[in-house]
Amino acid sequence: MICSSVSGFESILSQKRPVKILTRLLETGKIPHAFIFTGMEGVGKRLTALTFAMAVNCEGHGEDPLGNSRMGSDPIRSSKDTPCGRCRSCNKIKAGSHPDVLTVAPEGSMIKIQQIRNLIRTLTLKPYEARVRVVIISQSHTLNPAAGNALLKILEEPPDRTLLILTAPQTGDILPTIVSRCRPIRFNPLSREHIKLLLEKNANLDEGKADVLSTMASGSFSRALTRSRANWIHRRQWLLSSVCFDRPDQMQALSVRTLLAFSEKLAVNKDTATASLEILAVWLRDLIVWRYRPRSIVNQDLKNEIQSASEKKPVAQLYKMIEIVLQAERDIRTNMNLRLCLDMMMLNLSEV
Question: Which residue in 173, 272, 199, 262 sits closest to 232, CA to CA?
């Protein structure tokens, strides 16, 4: 979610429980030193972290003295549980220019020890102007071991007037000693309706395209937004028709040359290949679901095609095809050779 969309907790969609927890903490003033926001990418974790940073520093409801004690022992008192979105502090946070709202993100594939050392040096100084300095550590599951141990020292002796917010897909990806010193809050996938609403607002899409992309996003707005820019509706059609996923009974008749040419095109980009496999797995799932609960299919705009394709293969064979696609996804995530994974997937699918 883009920073300019930050206004208050009402802008955070599909996250009723996280918002309830955070606003309750603001009301009581019992704010911990650190949170871990977990959930898939694109569900509003960063947006919520920025909104919370605005709330604890909002000047719109009058000055809110901290006293000289730490948050855990003498809580911050806030007169309201949501930021005004209009005061100087809120506007700086929305613009990304507040000197006391800091972000640490991976450099390349990981967060490195030098980044945490730089953060430690910053935290030895008092905040420039904020009542509460907020540090957002994005994708904290990418902390390398040395960086994780350095961060642990901060959590063991948290600086005054400082709040850390870590984000990650799940707590199991982070050092247990770090998790034990943070308050975990789990974020849900976004509803299809909310993704559609956000696409219409932020990507200027018409209702029809927004509806299709929202079904392809698997609960992630950032995924839907990326696919809206890359014409994924057209790509889905290519994926389904090129090697007979829309006619699964005919895939066995395809030549090895055709199958490997398809995998070669998929292998051009790892991220695109992974996203393509997600689309194929969802499509195959829909072929099974159609037989039992037609209203629950994901690709709602392709009902006629799903109905036709669903009749072409027994359910057991469709399950086997799904497992082959999911195994290819797992192999790619473990850094097996991309082209080899995709070649094996296509050859195995043709034998089902």
Answer: 272
Question: Hey, what are 336's tokens?
Answer: 């097996």
Q: Which of 322, 290, 325, 282 is nearest to 306 (CA)?
A: 290
- Mean of pLDDT values over 214-242: 86
- The dihedrals phi and psi of 178, each to the nearest 5 degrees, come to -75, -45
Which two structure tokens, joined as six digits, stand for 290?
Answer: 């159609």
Amino acid letter for position 318: L
Residue 263 near residue 342 (C-beta atoms within 8 A) = yes
Max CA separation in the chain (angstroms):
75
Task: Indicate the SS3 state at residue 56.
Answer: helix
- The answer to whether the CB of 324 falls within 8 A of the CB of 348 is yes
For residue range 88-109, list pLDDT tens digits in order: 999 999 999 999 999 999 998 8
Please give the model's pTM, rounded to 2 decimal places.
0.77
In the chain, the domains with their CATH numbers are: 3-186 (3.40.50.300), 230-350 (1.20.272.10)
Q: Tens of pLDDT along 102-144?
A: 999 999 889 999 999 999 999 999 999 999 999 999 999 999 9
**Is residue 159 over pLDDT 50?**
yes
Spatial contact of 200 and 210, defined as CB atoms under 8 Å apart: yes
pLDDT exceeds cutoff 70 at 80: no
Give Cα separations from 104 to 117, 139, 187, 286 (angstroms): 11, 9, 20, 39
Nearest 5 degrees, angle CA 74-CA 79-CA 83? Answer: 110
Q: Which strands, in side-by-side order, build the sheet including 162-168?
A: 101-104, 133-137, 162-168, 34-38, 183-186
Round to whole Å and give the CA distance between 35 and 15.
16
Q: In this model, does residue 79 exceed pLDDT 80?
A: no
Mean pLDDT, the chain, as a whole number? Answer: 89
226: pLDDT strictly greater than 60: yes
Q: How far apart, in Å, are the Cα atoms of 157 and each of 33, 49, 67, 181? A: 10, 22, 19, 10
CB contact at 8 A, 46 and 18: no
Cα angle value 234/237/239 (rounded, 5°): 110
What is the spatial distance between Cα 138 and Cα 30, in angstroms, rounded to a whole number?
24
